[in-house]
TrEMBL record:
<feature type="domain" description="Fe/B12 periplasmic-binding">
    <location>
        <begin position="43"/>
        <end position="300"/>
    </location>
</feature>
<dbReference type="GO" id="GO:0071281">
    <property type="term" value="P:cellular response to iron ion"/>
</dbReference>
<protein>
    <submittedName>
        <fullName>Iron(III) ABC transporter, periplasmic-binding protein</fullName>
    </submittedName>
</protein>
<dbReference type="Pfam" id="PF01497">
    <property type="entry name" value="Peripla_BP_2"/>
</dbReference>
<dbReference type="InterPro" id="IPR050902">
    <property type="entry name" value="ABC_Transporter_SBP"/>
</dbReference>
<dbReference type="InterPro" id="IPR002491">
    <property type="entry name" value="ABC_transptr_periplasmic_BD"/>
</dbReference>
Protein backbone atom coordinates (compact mmCIF):
# COMPACT_ATOMS: atom_id res chain seq x y z
CA UNK A 1 0.00 0.00 0.00
CA UNK A 2 1.26 3.46 -0.86
CA UNK A 3 0.78 6.42 1.41
CA UNK A 4 1.16 10.15 1.71
CA UNK A 5 3.07 11.86 4.49
CA UNK A 6 2.52 15.61 4.93
CA UNK A 7 5.14 17.74 6.72
CA UNK A 8 4.50 21.32 7.87
CA UNK A 9 7.62 21.87 9.99
CA UNK A 10 8.90 25.46 9.83
CA UNK A 11 6.07 26.45 7.52
CA UNK A 12 7.09 24.22 4.61
CA UNK A 13 4.34 22.24 2.93
CA UNK A 14 5.83 19.00 1.68
CA UNK A 15 4.22 15.85 0.36
CA UNK A 16 6.29 12.68 0.33
CA UNK A 17 4.58 10.10 -1.86
CA UNK A 18 5.57 6.58 -0.87
CA UNK A 19 4.93 3.29 -2.56
CA UNK A 20 6.72 0.03 -3.04
CA UNK A 21 7.98 1.30 -6.40
CA UNK A 22 8.84 4.99 -5.98
CA UNK A 23 9.90 7.60 -3.51
CA UNK A 24 9.02 11.12 -4.66
CA UNK A 25 9.12 14.52 -3.02
CA UNK A 26 6.41 16.93 -4.11
CA UNK A 27 6.69 20.53 -2.96
CA UNK A 28 4.81 23.78 -3.41
CA UNK A 29 7.26 26.51 -4.38
CA UNK A 30 7.03 30.24 -3.68
CA UNK A 31 5.05 30.83 -6.86
CA UNK A 32 2.39 28.35 -5.68
CA UNK A 33 3.52 25.77 -8.23
CA UNK A 34 3.51 22.04 -7.44
CA UNK A 35 6.89 20.55 -8.35
CA UNK A 36 7.69 16.83 -8.09
CA UNK A 37 11.14 15.31 -7.63
CA UNK A 38 11.68 11.62 -8.20
CA UNK A 39 15.41 11.95 -7.55
CA UNK A 40 17.77 14.34 -5.81
CA UNK A 41 18.98 16.99 -8.30
CA UNK A 42 22.68 16.62 -9.13
CA UNK A 43 23.07 19.40 -11.71
CA UNK A 44 21.59 22.83 -10.96
CA UNK A 45 21.52 26.04 -12.94
CA UNK A 46 20.95 29.00 -10.62
CA UNK A 47 19.39 31.98 -12.35
CA UNK A 48 19.63 34.30 -9.35
CA UNK A 49 22.61 35.26 -7.17
CA UNK A 50 20.32 35.03 -4.13
CA UNK A 51 19.37 31.47 -5.05
CA UNK A 52 23.07 30.66 -5.33
CA UNK A 53 23.59 31.97 -1.79
CA UNK A 54 20.96 29.50 -0.53
CA UNK A 55 22.80 26.58 -2.11
CA UNK A 56 26.15 27.69 -0.70
CA UNK A 57 24.58 28.12 2.75
CA UNK A 58 23.45 24.49 2.60
CA UNK A 59 26.83 23.25 1.34
CA UNK A 60 25.36 22.35 -2.06
CA UNK A 61 27.60 24.51 -4.24
CA UNK A 62 29.09 21.40 -5.87
CA UNK A 63 25.70 20.90 -7.59
CA UNK A 64 25.88 24.27 -9.37
CA UNK A 65 26.78 23.91 -13.06
CA UNK A 66 25.60 27.32 -14.29
CA UNK A 67 24.93 30.86 -13.06
CA UNK A 68 24.00 34.21 -14.59
CA UNK A 69 26.48 36.95 -15.48
CA UNK A 70 25.47 38.76 -12.27
CA UNK A 71 26.64 35.99 -9.96
CA UNK A 72 29.94 36.05 -8.06
CA UNK A 73 30.07 32.25 -7.91
CA UNK A 74 32.43 30.69 -10.42
CA UNK A 75 30.51 28.44 -12.79
CA UNK A 76 29.49 28.38 -16.46
CA UNK A 77 27.83 31.67 -17.38
CA UNK A 78 24.39 31.50 -19.00
CA UNK A 79 23.83 35.23 -19.58
CA UNK A 80 21.28 37.63 -18.15
CA UNK A 81 18.68 36.97 -15.48
CA UNK A 82 16.05 38.29 -17.90
CA UNK A 83 15.52 37.26 -20.61
CA UNK A 84 16.89 33.81 -19.87
CA UNK A 85 19.10 32.32 -22.57
CA UNK A 86 17.19 29.05 -22.76
CA UNK A 87 19.64 27.46 -25.20
CA UNK A 88 22.59 27.98 -22.85
CA UNK A 89 20.64 26.57 -19.93
CA UNK A 90 19.58 23.51 -21.90
CA UNK A 91 23.18 22.91 -23.02
CA UNK A 92 24.20 22.40 -19.37
CA UNK A 93 21.70 19.53 -19.01
CA UNK A 94 20.45 20.54 -15.54
CA UNK A 95 18.23 18.39 -13.33
CA UNK A 96 16.87 21.60 -11.83
CA UNK A 97 16.72 25.29 -12.72
CA UNK A 98 16.47 27.44 -9.60
CA UNK A 99 15.16 30.98 -9.97
CA UNK A 100 13.37 33.81 -8.19
CA UNK A 101 9.86 35.11 -8.71
CA UNK A 102 8.88 38.66 -9.50
CA UNK A 103 10.39 39.87 -12.77
CA UNK A 104 11.78 36.38 -13.48
CA UNK A 105 8.44 34.59 -13.20
CA UNK A 106 7.47 34.92 -16.89
CA UNK A 107 10.65 32.99 -17.77
CA UNK A 108 9.37 29.83 -16.06
CA UNK A 109 7.07 28.88 -18.92
CA UNK A 110 9.89 29.22 -21.48
CA UNK A 111 12.06 26.79 -19.52
CA UNK A 112 9.25 24.30 -18.93
CA UNK A 113 8.36 24.26 -22.63
CA UNK A 114 11.75 22.68 -23.35
CA UNK A 115 11.28 20.07 -20.65
CA UNK A 116 13.30 21.61 -17.80
CA UNK A 117 12.30 21.27 -14.15
CA UNK A 118 12.02 24.69 -12.50
CA UNK A 119 11.71 25.70 -8.84
CA UNK A 120 10.83 29.27 -7.88
CA UNK A 121 11.88 30.73 -4.53
CA UNK A 122 10.81 34.28 -3.74
CA UNK A 123 11.27 35.09 -0.03
CA UNK A 124 10.22 38.57 1.07
CA UNK A 125 10.55 38.09 4.84
CA UNK A 126 12.98 36.47 7.25
CA UNK A 127 10.47 33.69 7.92
CA UNK A 128 10.23 33.11 4.16
CA UNK A 129 14.01 32.72 3.99
CA UNK A 130 13.96 30.19 6.82
CA UNK A 131 11.17 28.26 5.13
CA UNK A 132 13.05 28.15 1.83
CA UNK A 133 16.16 26.79 3.57
CA UNK A 134 14.09 23.79 4.69
CA UNK A 135 12.38 23.52 1.31
CA UNK A 136 15.69 23.29 -0.57
CA UNK A 137 17.25 21.02 2.02
CA UNK A 138 14.39 18.58 1.62
CA UNK A 139 14.61 18.59 -2.16
CA UNK A 140 18.35 17.90 -2.04
CA UNK A 141 18.10 15.13 0.55
CA UNK A 142 19.57 17.28 3.32
CA UNK A 143 16.44 17.94 5.36
CA UNK A 144 18.04 17.25 8.77
CA UNK A 145 20.90 19.66 8.07
CA UNK A 146 18.50 22.25 6.66
CA UNK A 147 16.26 22.12 9.75
CA UNK A 148 19.32 22.57 11.98
CA UNK A 149 20.53 25.55 9.98
CA UNK A 150 17.03 27.03 9.90
CA UNK A 151 16.92 26.78 13.69
CA UNK A 152 20.25 28.64 13.85
CA UNK A 153 18.72 31.47 11.83
CA UNK A 154 15.66 31.57 14.08
CA UNK A 155 17.90 31.65 17.14
CA UNK A 156 19.85 34.58 15.70
CA UNK A 157 16.58 36.48 15.30
CA UNK A 158 15.65 35.69 18.91
CA UNK A 159 19.10 36.64 20.20
CA UNK A 160 19.07 40.09 18.62
CA UNK A 161 15.38 40.58 19.35
CA UNK A 162 15.95 39.95 23.06
CA UNK A 163 18.87 42.41 23.16
CA UNK A 164 16.74 45.15 21.62
CA UNK A 165 13.43 44.25 23.28
CA UNK A 166 13.75 46.48 26.34
CA UNK A 167 14.98 49.55 24.48
CA UNK A 168 12.07 52.06 24.57
CA UNK A 169 10.98 53.73 21.31
CA UNK A 170 12.29 57.07 22.55
CA UNK A 171 15.81 55.61 22.73
CA UNK A 172 15.74 53.85 19.37
CA UNK A 173 17.43 55.57 16.42
CA UNK A 174 15.40 56.58 13.40
CA UNK A 175 17.04 54.87 10.41
CA UNK A 176 17.24 55.52 6.68
CA UNK A 177 18.50 52.71 4.45
CA UNK A 178 19.85 53.79 1.06
CA UNK A 179 20.16 51.21 -1.70
CA UNK A 180 22.98 53.41 -2.99
CA UNK A 181 24.41 56.85 -2.26
CA UNK A 182 22.52 59.70 -3.98
CA UNK A 183 23.96 61.65 -6.88
CA UNK A 184 23.87 65.44 -7.27
CA UNK A 185 20.59 65.63 -9.21
CA UNK A 186 18.62 62.94 -7.38
CA UNK A 187 15.05 63.80 -6.37
CA UNK A 188 13.94 60.50 -4.84
CA UNK A 189 15.66 57.77 -2.85
CA UNK A 190 15.10 54.01 -3.12
CA UNK A 191 14.88 52.33 0.28
CA UNK A 192 13.40 49.35 2.13
CA UNK A 193 9.81 49.69 3.28
CA UNK A 194 6.76 47.75 4.37
CA UNK A 195 6.98 44.03 3.66
CA UNK A 196 10.74 43.90 3.12
CA UNK A 197 13.19 41.70 5.01
CA UNK A 198 15.47 44.72 5.60
CA UNK A 199 12.62 46.55 7.34
CA UNK A 200 12.36 43.52 9.64
CA UNK A 201 16.12 43.49 10.24
CA UNK A 202 16.21 47.19 11.16
CA UNK A 203 13.35 46.68 13.61
CA UNK A 204 14.81 43.52 15.17
CA UNK A 205 18.17 45.28 15.60
CA UNK A 206 16.46 48.04 17.56
CA UNK A 207 16.03 50.73 14.94
CA UNK A 208 12.98 52.57 13.62
CA UNK A 209 12.88 52.49 9.83
CA UNK A 210 11.56 55.86 8.61
CA UNK A 211 10.04 54.02 5.61
CA UNK A 212 8.30 51.35 7.66
CA UNK A 213 4.66 51.34 6.64
CA UNK A 214 5.40 52.71 3.17
CA UNK A 215 4.66 50.22 0.41
CA UNK A 216 6.65 49.70 -2.77
CA UNK A 217 7.41 47.00 -5.34
CA UNK A 218 8.35 43.91 -3.29
CA UNK A 219 8.84 46.20 -0.29
CA UNK A 220 11.18 48.73 -1.99
CA UNK A 221 9.58 52.21 -2.16
CA UNK A 222 10.96 55.58 -3.19
CA UNK A 223 11.09 58.47 -0.72
CA UNK A 224 11.20 62.16 -1.55
CA UNK A 225 14.05 64.25 -0.20
CA UNK A 226 11.50 66.41 1.58
CA UNK A 227 10.11 63.39 3.45
CA UNK A 228 13.58 62.25 4.51
CA UNK A 229 14.54 65.68 5.79
CA UNK A 230 11.24 65.96 7.70
CA UNK A 231 11.81 62.54 9.31
CA UNK A 232 15.37 63.57 10.28
CA UNK A 233 16.94 60.09 10.65
CA UNK A 234 19.56 59.54 13.34
CA UNK A 235 21.39 56.85 11.36
CA UNK A 236 21.91 56.36 7.63
CA UNK A 237 22.93 52.96 6.25
CA UNK A 238 24.10 52.79 2.63
CA UNK A 239 24.72 49.78 0.43
CA UNK A 240 28.22 49.56 -1.12
CA UNK A 241 28.84 47.26 -4.09
CA UNK A 242 32.57 47.72 -4.73
CA UNK A 243 34.87 46.70 -1.85
CA UNK A 244 37.25 49.47 -0.85
CA UNK A 245 34.88 52.32 -1.74
CA UNK A 246 33.15 52.50 1.65
CA UNK A 247 34.71 55.81 2.70
CA UNK A 248 33.95 57.32 -0.69
CA UNK A 249 30.27 56.35 -0.45
CA UNK A 250 29.98 57.73 3.07
CA UNK A 251 31.55 61.01 1.94
CA UNK A 252 28.96 61.32 -0.85
CA UNK A 253 26.24 61.29 1.78
CA UNK A 254 28.03 63.61 4.21
CA UNK A 255 28.54 66.08 1.33
CA UNK A 256 25.02 65.71 -0.09
CA UNK A 257 23.59 69.21 0.30
CA UNK A 258 19.91 68.26 0.93
CA UNK A 259 21.03 66.12 3.90
CA UNK A 260 23.27 68.69 5.60
CA UNK A 261 20.83 69.36 8.50
CA UNK A 262 19.91 65.70 9.09
CA UNK A 263 21.04 64.38 12.49
CA UNK A 264 22.79 61.37 10.95
CA UNK A 265 24.96 63.67 8.84
CA UNK A 266 25.59 66.28 11.53
CA UNK A 267 26.63 63.54 13.97
CA UNK A 268 28.47 61.53 11.29
CA UNK A 269 26.41 58.41 11.94
CA UNK A 270 26.54 57.21 8.33
CA UNK A 271 27.54 53.57 7.92
CA UNK A 272 27.94 51.05 5.11
CA UNK A 273 26.91 47.47 4.46
CA UNK A 274 27.67 45.09 1.61
CA UNK A 275 25.03 46.13 -0.93
CA UNK A 276 25.15 42.81 -2.77
CA UNK A 277 24.44 40.93 0.45
CA UNK A 278 21.73 43.35 1.60
CA UNK A 279 19.90 43.36 -1.74
CA UNK A 280 19.68 39.57 -2.08
CA UNK A 281 17.11 37.84 0.17
CA UNK A 282 19.06 34.81 1.35
CA UNK A 283 20.30 33.34 4.66
CA UNK A 284 23.30 35.69 4.43
CA UNK A 285 21.15 38.73 5.31
CA UNK A 286 20.89 37.44 8.88
CA UNK A 287 24.51 38.63 9.27
CA UNK A 288 23.14 42.17 9.14
CA UNK A 289 21.36 41.72 12.48
CA UNK A 290 24.62 41.90 14.43
CA UNK A 291 26.08 44.57 12.13
CA UNK A 292 23.12 46.92 12.47
CA UNK A 293 22.75 46.38 16.21
CA UNK A 294 26.40 47.39 16.56
CA UNK A 295 25.86 50.48 14.40
CA UNK A 296 22.84 51.48 16.48
CA UNK A 297 24.20 50.75 19.96
CA UNK A 298 27.68 49.29 20.02
CA UNK A 299 30.21 51.27 18.04
CA UNK A 300 30.98 53.44 15.05
CA UNK A 301 33.05 51.16 12.83
CA UNK A 302 32.09 51.17 9.18
Amino acid sequence: MGGIAVFRKLGVLLFVLMSTLTLAVVVVDDAGRVVEFSAVPERVVSLSPAATRFLIFLGLEDRIVGVTDYDSYEAERVGAMVPVNVEKVVALNPDLVLMFGGFQLPEVAKLERVGLKVLVINPTSLDDIIRDVVLLGTIFGERKLAVEKAEELKNKMLEIGKKAYNIPPSKRPKVLYLISAPGPDVKEIWTCGEGSYLDEIISLAGGINIASGIAGPNGWPQLSLEYIVAQNPDVIIVGVYVPGTEDEEVKKILDFDPFREINAVKNKRVFTVDGNLASQPSPDVFKLLDILYDYFYGGNNR
